[in-house]
Amino acid sequence: MLVAARAALDNKEDFRYGNLKLENEFYQLGLLTKQQRFIAVDCALCEIKPEDRWGPRPPGNISFPPYSGKTLFAFRWKSSDFKKIMYLKFCLSGSAGLELLVLYSFHEERP
Asked: Is the CB of residue 5 less than 8 Å from the CB of residue 92?
Protein backbone atom coordinates (compact mmCIF):
# COMPACT_ATOMS: atom_id res chain seq x y z
CA MET A 1 0.00 0.00 0.00
CA LEU A 2 2.86 2.44 0.72
CA VAL A 3 4.48 1.72 -2.64
CA ALA A 4 1.12 2.24 -4.38
CA ALA A 5 0.49 5.48 -2.44
CA ARG A 6 3.93 6.77 -3.37
CA ALA A 7 3.36 5.84 -7.04
CA ALA A 8 -0.08 7.50 -7.03
CA LEU A 9 1.39 10.74 -5.66
CA ASP A 10 4.29 10.65 -8.12
CA ASN A 11 2.14 9.79 -11.14
CA LYS A 12 -0.62 12.34 -10.53
CA GLU A 13 1.56 14.91 -8.76
CA ASP A 14 -1.51 15.57 -6.64
CA PHE A 15 -3.84 14.08 -4.07
CA ARG A 16 -7.50 14.52 -3.12
CA TYR A 17 -9.14 15.45 0.15
CA GLY A 18 -11.34 12.67 1.49
CA ASN A 19 -13.08 15.00 3.96
CA LEU A 20 -13.32 18.64 5.02
CA LYS A 21 -11.36 18.30 8.29
CA LEU A 22 -8.14 17.74 6.35
CA GLU A 23 -8.03 21.44 5.45
CA ASN A 24 -7.94 22.36 9.14
CA GLU A 25 -5.29 19.72 9.86
CA PHE A 26 -3.01 21.18 7.20
CA TYR A 27 -3.65 24.67 8.56
CA GLN A 28 -2.72 23.58 12.09
CA LEU A 29 0.60 22.27 10.76
CA GLY A 30 1.27 25.62 9.07
CA LEU A 31 0.86 24.10 5.61
CA LEU A 32 -1.02 26.87 3.84
CA THR A 33 -0.30 26.41 0.15
CA LYS A 34 -0.95 23.52 -2.20
CA GLN A 35 2.80 23.19 -2.78
CA GLN A 36 3.60 23.06 0.96
CA ARG A 37 0.96 20.37 1.42
CA PHE A 38 2.22 18.31 -1.50
CA ILE A 39 5.79 18.47 -0.19
CA ALA A 40 4.64 17.48 3.32
CA VAL A 41 2.73 14.44 2.03
CA ASP A 42 5.64 13.54 -0.23
CA CYS A 43 8.03 13.69 2.74
CA ALA A 44 5.64 11.68 4.92
CA LEU A 45 5.41 8.89 2.36
CA CYS A 46 9.22 8.81 2.22
CA GLU A 47 9.50 8.55 6.01
CA ILE A 48 6.76 6.00 6.72
CA LYS A 49 7.72 2.33 6.90
CA PRO A 50 5.41 -0.72 6.77
CA GLU A 51 5.92 -1.29 10.50
CA ASP A 52 4.41 2.17 11.15
CA ARG A 53 1.01 0.79 10.17
CA TRP A 54 -1.64 1.76 12.72
CA GLY A 55 -5.29 1.00 13.26
CA PRO A 56 -7.52 -2.03 12.94
CA ARG A 57 -6.32 -5.17 11.23
CA PRO A 58 -7.72 -5.73 8.72
CA PRO A 59 -8.20 -2.03 7.96
CA GLY A 60 -11.72 -0.66 7.70
CA ASN A 61 -13.45 0.51 4.56
CA ILE A 62 -14.93 3.91 3.81
CA SER A 63 -18.69 3.86 4.16
CA PHE A 64 -19.61 7.11 2.39
CA PRO A 65 -19.37 8.33 -1.21
CA PRO A 66 -17.52 9.00 -3.40
CA TYR A 67 -14.96 6.45 -2.15
CA SER A 68 -17.36 3.95 -0.57
CA GLY A 69 -15.83 0.52 -0.13
CA LYS A 70 -12.22 1.69 -0.47
CA THR A 71 -9.82 0.46 2.21
CA LEU A 72 -8.42 3.04 4.62
CA PHE A 73 -4.79 2.70 5.69
CA ALA A 74 -3.46 4.54 8.74
CA PHE A 75 0.12 5.13 9.81
CA ARG A 76 1.73 6.59 12.93
CA TRP A 77 5.42 7.45 12.81
CA LYS A 78 8.10 9.60 14.37
CA SER A 79 8.74 12.25 11.75
CA SER A 80 12.20 13.70 11.39
CA ASP A 81 10.77 16.43 9.13
CA PHE A 82 8.04 17.55 11.55
CA LYS A 83 10.03 16.69 14.70
CA LYS A 84 6.97 15.00 16.24
CA ILE A 85 4.89 11.86 16.04
CA MET A 86 2.55 12.15 13.07
CA TYR A 87 -0.56 10.34 11.83
CA LEU A 88 -1.60 9.82 8.20
CA LYS A 89 -4.70 8.04 6.90
CA PHE A 90 -5.47 7.49 3.22
CA CYS A 91 -7.11 5.32 0.61
CA LEU A 92 -6.34 4.69 -3.03
CA SER A 93 -8.99 5.07 -5.71
CA GLY A 94 -8.86 3.94 -9.32
CA SER A 95 -7.26 1.04 -11.10
CA ALA A 96 -3.75 -0.29 -10.50
CA GLY A 97 -1.13 1.98 -11.99
CA LEU A 98 -3.64 4.83 -12.37
CA GLU A 99 -4.58 5.19 -8.72
CA LEU A 100 -5.33 8.46 -6.98
CA LEU A 101 -4.18 9.13 -3.43
CA VAL A 102 -7.06 10.30 -1.21
CA LEU A 103 -6.11 11.69 2.22
CA TYR A 104 -8.39 11.53 5.26
CA SER A 105 -6.05 12.59 8.06
CA PHE A 106 -2.67 14.26 8.32
CA HIS A 107 -1.86 15.62 11.75
CA GLU A 108 0.29 15.44 14.84
CA GLU A 109 -0.51 12.45 17.05
CA ARG A 110 -3.40 13.17 19.37
CA PRO A 111 -3.60 11.87 22.94
From this structure: yes
